[in-house]
Amino acid sequence: MESDSKVVHPPVSGAPVRFRAPDGYELGGFLWHSPQEGEERPILIISSATSVRCRYYARFALYMFQHGFDVLTYDYRGIGESRPNQLKGFNADWADWGEQDLEGALLYIGQILPGRPLRVIGHSIGGFAIGLAPSNGRIGRILSVGSQYAYWRDYGARHKLRMLCKWHLVMPLMTRLFGYFPAKRLGWMEDTPAGVARDWSGMKARFEDTLRAGRSVGGRAEGDILRERFEQVQAPMLAISFSDDPHGTVPAVNRLLAYFRGSERKHLHLKPSDVGHETIGHFAFFHERFRDTLWPLALHWLRHGRIPPGLSSALISLPLV
């Protein structure tokens, strides 16, 4: 793990920003940016988990800013800063979140801070979104945390029945009833566009058999076009998973990693005890209580493209595909 004595002290939150996706949809987020001229700080974009507001990542973004990165967080269409006036009938899907919204973030950063080294963190579905963005070849280094695309057979064994009921029974039924998934009423997450809920609840082993199923572009299945986009990624990629995460299990994370064929991929599978904690799960990596344990791991990888000394024994082999 590492620290940095040259700490910058910015405001607590980033500056609000608005930018457009390639299809014109306006997105909102926050930018931590150092105005010092002549300082070529790398850029970090954080892509959120499904229906988690980008504000959730603010403390982590501030930490990365204090340690030498300019940072952009943003909300996918339908969520938080990018939510429309009405979600009913707003049918954004997971493909939109990658090929439009993350793409819009990549293009926006390229316009306002051109030529900077580019890093991306994907949390949960945020790691999947990286493969869907047409400009993903611009990324220089990737960190994913619990990233997968919610194929139900990969859920943790002890939680599988509960998760099947929650995400593959309750979610699609309520989505059909309301025209969107009113998750906030249940205290589960942010309200979610119908298309995203349908993708999640109906996901098959190969995502290309679910996303944009039955649609074609130029005579080709759109799912196949999306799948091939993953092969554009050439950035070294570190995927982190945790033994107590029922979403980002080893099979789930490896299933997603298999699509990034052009990237040098590493999978670091940790037990909470490896970093001196009792639980981590799917979301807690970005909690401030991990500032001195897990956050330096992210910093070290994004700076140097290496795993900190002492953790290499937690690397696991990727299956041959």
Characterization of this structure:
With 321 residues, the chain is of the alpha/beta class. It has one domain (15-150, 219-316): 3-Layer(aba) Sandwich (Rossmann fold), CATH 3.40.50.1820. 29% of the residues lie in helices and 16% in strands. The protein has nine helices and eleven strands. Helix 4 runs antiparallel to helix 6.
Short description:
The N terminus is likely disordered.
CATH class identity = Alpha Beta
* Domain count: 1
Strand order of the largest sheet: 1-2-4-3-5-6-9-10-11
Return the CATH architecture: 3-Layer(aba) Sandwich
Question: Alpha-carbon distance between the termini?
Answer: 32 Å
DSSP E strands, number: 11
Outline, from the CA principal axes? globular
Uncertain segments of ≥5 residues (pLDDT<50)? Answer: 3-10
Run of helices and strands: EEEHEHEHEHHHEEHEHEHE
Provide the gyration radius in Å.
19 Å
Characteristic terms for this protein:
single chain; 321 residues; alpha/beta; Rossmann fold; 9-stranded mixed β-sheet; two-stranded antiparallel ribbon; 9 helices; globular; disordered N terminus
Q: Secondary-structure blueprint of this entry?
A:
Elements (H helix, E strand, L loop, with lengths): L14 E6 L5 E7 L10 E5 L10 H9 L3 E5 L19 H19 L5 E6 L1 H8 L8 E5 L14 H19 L4 H4 L7 H8 L14 E2 L2 E2 H8 L7 E6 L7 H8 L7 E6 L24 H10 L10 E2 L5
Parallel strand pairs: 3-4, 3-5, 5-6, 6-9, 9-10
Antiparallel strand pairs: 1-2, 2-4, 7-8, 10-11
Helix pairs in contact: 2-3, 4-6
